[in-house]
Amino acid sequence: MTYMFDNIKAFDDAYEIIKNNIRKINDFEYVSVYDAFGRICHDDIYSVNNLPLFSRSQVDGYAVITSDLQNADREHPVTLELAGQTYIGNPPVNHPGNGKCMKVPTGAAIPVGADAMVPFEDAAINGNMVTFNAPVDKFNEISNAGLDVMRGERLAEKFKMLDERDISVIAATGQNVIKVFRKINIGIIPTGDELIRPGENYVEGKIFESNSLAIYQALKKYNSFNVKIYDIVRDSYEELKKVINASVTENDVTITIGSTSAGEMDYVYKIIGEYKPGILFHGVRVKPGKPVLFAKAGERDIFGLPGFPVSSIMLLYTMVLPNIFSMVNYNFKNYSVNAIAGEPFDLHRGNTDILLLKLVRHKGSYFAYQVRGNSGSISRIMRANGFSTHNSVTGTLQKGDGINVNLFDPHIPEILIAGQYLPDMEFMPYDLKINSIFAEFTYNDIRESMLNNEADVYISNYNEDLYNENYDKITFLKNYGLYFNKKDYKYLAVLYKDSGLFNICHDYIEGSNIILLDRPGMIPDYVFNKRCDAGISYSDYSEMYKIPFEPLGRIRFNVYINKTGNYYKILFDFFNSIKDKN
């Protein structure tokens, strides 16, 4: 049995251990073309017919023999007898020969013996005689059989994941079943006494279990997997062992969530360590996600993921999912773009950092900004539109450095709003909101960035004015005050030190135990749920929480809108409209 965190691996080394030891599956099955989307080809797929299947017309027109029209011009037109017509879906008929033509609709078979089509609009008909004023090239407006795809041509390579384009072409050649790798069976086991299912009555101290749901949905996107979530397993050695044994027996891959760390009740790694060959590594130098493990029970593979939401889902994307696909030799890659760090990033030297990022497309380039928070902050995933895996040597990623970003969503916003958070941004129209990101900047960050004309909007609640001729300014005055559940507070929640509001509230902070929070809406929530005695935030939330609120003053927000930006007018109109609500 491997001991807890014995010989912690570098991320790349751990990845290689999985890659070199994960089971390879060669089992196959035949599926209908109607069920083939997202399946992986077991063999190369070849066409069994030509495409087009027959020579067909690309226009509504007349089927002719080109030699009849070789001398035609406006001074010497050629007149041919209309000798009949064909119909879509009917077998090809014989062309009657020189001196004659036939009507043929778009998509119908070319009469045997004809070698060109002339569109109706390029000819004139009078009774059963048709006049032509110009010659045509051989095969004019004809799709010849096999012009698109030849019989025996390879349509899809082995190990390719089939999409709607592949399936359309394969079906067009007449094939109705495809040989694919069988689906990989995956079991997900959430663990922990603290967990309850969404929809159950909340009990103080419990947590609504969402990790398994996130991982389940991430895997269910792929039609190559059968995925099953087991019921929540309590922190009981016997119960955990029973369910893990069941999953290992029933599935190719088992993914456990939680109970991989060093706690007294963390049994998962102890149980997995009893299998043979057992745990291949436990502990990786990665942030977040250090307690991750990989093990084998015979040929079956086991991933033990940490219980924190960000840790588990990010390890799924970066370490687990690509290696599960490698079981059938599919080279899974996230869609990624090369971006520029829009701000400095503090990294963990000697570790691999999995960074959740906000990406914006600005002036023809992509810029990446941090989504701040810890690995237990599940909303960080929702606020990010990409992530990056970065091996840290120096401990810092400097502003302007290149960074490769994997995308959650191919839609990349084009509006950058930077500075201090203004609650009124919640009123932003949907089309504007989905096309913008907000990045937290300090006063000095704003000043430097504004000189370089980097953002569409800057928001500052510091007293100093940041005049810049390229920006229009709109000023807001926001009420702030003390939310409290006891007046003689010992624990006070406030915004982070570079928030502007922190500096204004210095007298109230002195002598208190301070809880720094990222967003102003979190502060009344902390007070309401008695995670602290009091907190200082904006008055916007007083109606929502219905807790005592004592006004302390007003703080000025200056909103600077880039006059040279593509979205100047819509942004100016929005901020100007909400100014009247304050």
From TrEMBL:
Judging by the UniProt lineage, the source's domain of life is Archaea
One annotated GO molecular function is: molybdopterin molybdotransferase activity
Q: Does the entry feature the keyword Iron, yes or no?
A: no
Q: Tell me yes or no: is Flavoprotein among this UniProt entry's keywords.
A: no
Q: What InterPro entries does the database record attribute to this sequence?
A: MoaB/Mog-like_dom_sf (IPR036425), MoaB/Mog_dom (IPR001453), MoCF_biosynth_CS (IPR008284), MoeA-like (IPR038987), MoeA_C_domain_IV (IPR005111), MoeA_C_domain_IV_sf (IPR036688), MoeA_linker/N (IPR005110), MoeA_linker/N_sf (IPR036135)
Task: Pull one GO CC term from this UniProt entry.
Answer: cytoplasm
Report the protein name in the record. MoaB/Mog domain-containing protein
* Organism name: Acidiplasma aeolicum
